[in-house]
Amino acid sequence: MKNITLTILIFVLSFPFNSFSEEVIINDPRSVAVIVNRDSNDLSFMDLKTKKIVGRVFLGKWVNPHMAVLTPDGRRVVTGGTRANRAYIIDVATLKLIKSIPVDTAPEHLAITPDSRYYYQGNPDGDSVSIIDLVSLKRLKNLEGFAEPLNITMLPDGSKAYVANMGAHWVGVIDVKRHELLKKIKVGDVPERSKLDPGKFLGEINGISNATITKDGRYLYAADGDLGIVGVIDTREDRLIKTIKVGENPWRAYSSPDGTKMVVVNNGDETVSIIDIKTNSVIATFEAGPEMIGVNFSNDKAFVISRASSFLYVYDLKSLKPAGRIKIGTGLELETAATDPQGDKLYLASSRDHSIYIIDGKTHEFERVPDVGLYPWGAFILEGQDNYCH
Amino acid sequence: MVRQVLTLFLLFFAIFIFSSTLATAGNESESANKTIAREILEEVRVLRNRTQELEDRLMDLESKAVLSEPELIVKQKDIWVCDDGQEFDRPDRAKCRDGKELRKSFTYQREKVYRRQTISEKIEEALTAEEGISMGVSATATVQQAIGIGSHENKAEGDLFGIGSVDLLLIGKPALNTMFFVDIEAIGGFSPDTTISNISVLNSDNARRTNDRELNIREAWMKLELFEQQLSLYGGMLDLTNYFDANRVANDEDSQFITDTLVNNPLLGAPANGGGITAIYDPKTGVNFRWGIQRSDSASTGLTEEVFSVIEIGYLSHFITIPEGHYRVWYRFDKDLGKENMAYGFSIDQKLSASLTLFGRFGHKFTSDQFQDDDFFYSGGFQFKNRYTFSPGDYWAFGYQHTDLGTEIKESLIEGYYNFDLAESFKASFHLQYLFDSNSGGADKSYLLPGLRVHFDF
User: Fold this and answer.
1) Is the pLDDT of residue A18 over 50?
2) Does residue B86 carry a pLDDT above 90?
């Protein structure tokens, strides 16, 4: 009897219970950078210390992901597949694709609520924002009424979300509890004289690409390309408090880490405007380069990414003077970058040579990590100082 | 023993009762099972029909849809090669047949990517691809009237003048970090300078005109960038005023002041456009160095025969409380290092706020003639942008200049203008010039010159 009991116990204990639990690949979500690879249709995960790719998640052919974001709790990575019209949710620890959810046309940029509960996916071609519940993994609704919604900004308390419309001159305010569009805030008046220039104003519209929030969450800075202005919005009252004239065709504003300045890149005249947040005025304008699509910050300096020229233009924000430029390579296409939480290093995606360049913000030296995937479009680091997409 | 037998009997009895119960229940459930089976079969039949329907629709869709093809990209990749042509993707575990070391090289190779693009994206990509030469056209037309002031001898009293210019610009990029530029211009008409003797040049187009209404190659040069594009070299037919003595608010006769001495420093003395070389070193840290040489006389046949040479240092300032300013100091000599051929000057523009910029210029040309004074020039003024304007994009400015030549010719001029930014390619401006204290031509004169300028560029 005892032998029979012992035999039964040994059998039970040696039963492969581990086959029910997945292998954990990433223990600490803050230790990796998530890289979106448009043409290989995957997300790759690079260890920040070893600079090696520790895992990939293939999403499927023809997906062409655009922007990936880690939820604030670090458990999931979400991305929109621009050519698949779907949202993808991946478990960070096991790097398994949990679910793909249909959204609207051509999803690009997204935002997650601070409590990691809701995922707001912008669909510029569908003129809508899809709202996904990350607990039930279901799409709650497609919120319509936008004009090419390009970026979504969450308030730190998660109560409201602000949607920048590239196809219009207003910022939409969404109530995150009810998931409804509350109001539209116009950032500037279109001049009467625009009627003399139908070729420009009726041919194509360069509206607002992003409403950038200040570090304290009190104000938004929304740059409007056609109007050449930055509108300052008070988030408590949801109203426009000031309009600041900047250079031609401003792309968007980027907030300095100390919260005192906004750096606005003006692609129309290849300049950079520095706005002082306290006085809401332009305190410096610098020459920069063509096709500027991102700004990162490190060591009290702003690093402006000039896509076509393969340069990073550097500006000292303390002395308000140019601090040279860094030539990354020749004939590259630089995309966007993420800055690590310490603000020491920039992780810059370079699509043409399929690499990530790690730039030291202090010394300006850089190191190339090749073959991260095909056509990397951007990177995301949890709790990173700068995370954005273009 | 008895107990064990009894236990066994009870066990067998229980088994017997259980089996009987099962047999009875089996009979009743058999008919229920048949019903369930029929229902299941019916559902399977419905699902089969539905699947067939979906398959038929999918086939129909596939036959009509435009199939997606993978995009083909060309990728640069590192390879390791042997002398006999063997090529490896990785150096580890690769060996040449002749035992020699592998050599690192690079190549280009086509790869497939599963990237889907819409038709409009493909068209846009094709249209924006940089190829060949890009062309631009700009045209400026100015009308000015001369109104005599005071009791001076004003010959051009009441006269109306008009002058126009057309520029055809060609830009090409033949190789990496190189650029080719050609500016073909024609200027025609009459400016107030044809009738009013002055040294300020009342219409800057007149200062640039070679022959009336004739096509003229104004500039044709090649630019090369070296040392991580910090050093730019320009060689060919140059306009030196494009590189030296620049100014943010007083440098462009098409969009800023009309008067030539408010657009350029007359004592810079740059010769007419001709063959030359300019080098600009700009590390983008706020300081830059410029050097240029050009043949001094258009009749000379070589660059070294008679040389005009200029050097300049530029500095971008940012003093604590005020925005940026540009400070430029130049020095030049013309033909030789004789004192009478040397001059120096500076050009400043300083922003005081986001909308207000001050500017100033100064020039001093030496003379070796003991009976003659040196030449002096100075100008200054301000520009307002996006403030006190009718519309965003408009700007207006005011400038004053005074030229005092050692030959005792001197004059002063004030100009104000308001520029309307009407459309992306179309600007119009009203100007008012006041020429006074001028003794050029031996006669004192003062004129008020209202004018209108329109400018197009594509």
Assistant:
1) no
2) no
Q: Is B324 on the interface with A (CB under 8 A)?
A: yes
Q: Which residues pair with B288 in a beta bridge?
A: B314
Q: Inspect the interface and report whether the beta carbons of B424 and A41 lie closer than 8 Å.
A: no
The rounded mean pLDDT for chain B is 86
CB contact under 8 A, B391 and A354: no
Tell me the CATH number at B409: 2.40.160.10
ipTM here: 0.81
CA distance A245 to A304: 20
B95 plus B163 within the same structural domain:
no
CATH number belonging to the domain at A294-390, selected among 3.40.190.120, 2.40.30.110, 2.40.10.480, 3.90.226.10: 2.40.10.480
**Other residues' Cβ atoms within 10 Å of the Cβ of residue B442:** 8
What is the tens place of the pLDDT at every residue in B395-415?
Answer: 999 999 999 998 888 999 999
Phi, psi angle pair for A253, to nearest 5°: -100, 150
Tell me the residue type at A343.
G
Same domain, B141 and B115: no
Closest CA to B156 of B144, B174, B140: B144
Partners of A39 on chain B (C-beta within 8 Å) are 71, 73, 113-115
Hey, is the C-beta of B50 within 8 angstroms of any chain A C-beta? Answer: no
- Mean pLDDT, to the nearest integer, of B73-83? 73
Residue with tokens 């409403």: A211
Nearest Cα residue in chain A from B351: A284
B299/B229 same-domain check:
yes
Task: Please judge whether B318 and A321 are an interchain contact, meaning their C-beta atoms are less than 8 angstroms apart.
Answer: yes
- Cα A273–A278–A280 angle (5° rounding)? 45
Domain limits at B146? 133-457
Q: Is B123 on the interface with A (CB under 8 A)?
A: no
Q: How confident is the model at residue B337 (pLDDT cuts 50, 70, 90)?
A: confident
Task: Tell me the sheet residues that pair with A221.
Answer: A212, A232
pTM for the model? 0.82
pLDDT at B319: 81
Q: Which residue has the higher pLDDT, A2 or B176?
A: B176
In a domain? residue B13: no
